[in-house]
């Protein structure tokens, strides 16, 4: 599993709805984005650029510099960067073949 991929506000809303109502408890989740290749250039696992700023990210995020290269969605639905060693749950997108 390499994480979730979202492209727009509709997908973000769907993911947030799933976290709020489809899971036992809303907590932080890894969702498959990173800036590991180029600091500050956030990409989904499929190579698409991650939208920055409102309405997706916490204010002042991403803020972890080179030590926080992985994307999480917080328990309130906003993105933040984090150290990939933190043992959060993860959400994966299943693609039908």
Automatic annotation (TrEMBL):
For this protein, the record's SUPFAM superfamilies field holds: C-type lectin-like
Database matches in Gene3D superfamilies: Mannose-Binding Protein A, subunit A (3.10.100.10)
Q: Show the stretches that span the lipid bilayer.
A: none
Q: Which InterPro entries match?
A: C-type_lectin-like (IPR001304), C-type_lectin-like/link_sf (IPR016186), CTDL_fold (IPR016187)
Keyword Iron-sulfur, does the record have it? no
Q: Which GO molecular function annotations are given, in alphabetical order? A: carbohydrate binding
Q: Does the keyword Flavoprotein apply?
A: no
Where the record annotates domain C-type lectin, the positions are: 28-93
The alphabetical list of record keywords is: Lectin
According to UniProt, the name of this protein is C-type lectin-like protein
Species for this entry: Metapenaeus ensis (Greasyback shrimp)
């Amino acid at each position: 599993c390499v994480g979730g991929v979202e492209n727009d506000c509709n997908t973000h809303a769907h993911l947030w709805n799933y976290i709020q109502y489809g899971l036992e408890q809303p907590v932080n989740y890894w969702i498959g984005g990173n800036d590991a290749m180029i600091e500050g250039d956030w990409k989904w696992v499929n190579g698409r650029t991650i939208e920055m700023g409102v309405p997706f990210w916490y204010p002042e995020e991403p803020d972890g510099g080179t030590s926080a290269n992985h994307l999480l969605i917080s328990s309130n639905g906003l993105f933040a960067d984090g150290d990939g060693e933190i043992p959060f749950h993860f959400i994966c997108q299943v693609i039908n073949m």
